[in-house]
Amino acid sequence: MGIDGDGSHTLSGRVIQCIIQVHQTLGPGFLESVYRRALLIELCRQNLATQAEKEVVIYYDGHEVGKHRLDLLVEGQIILELKTVEALSKAHYAQVRSYLRATRLYVALLVNFAADRADFRRIESS
Fold it and tell me: If one looks up domain 10-124 in CATH, what number appears?
């Protein structure tokens, strides 16, 4: 079930369906932590191995300079960064791109649950 070089988006498509399901069921207005737990349930229901709050070490010039926790990591391949904000900003995109660099992963989904419709953006490492 690849998402990298072969052009297949089957995994990200399955994850997006889970995002849509959670948003349709809960609607907007809850805290990010509520959506994270609900999405974790839905992803597990779809038999997708998911880690919540996966710790990532950040390095600079070979030295550990900090740590970050990813909201969700699906199948060890897709980072999910969840937001409940009025609108996604350039800072949110920059945050996700930095997570892709730090993890050397290829795909992330930036998700905003605050909108009337599920708002998700696929971001790929450059």
Answer: 3.90.320.10
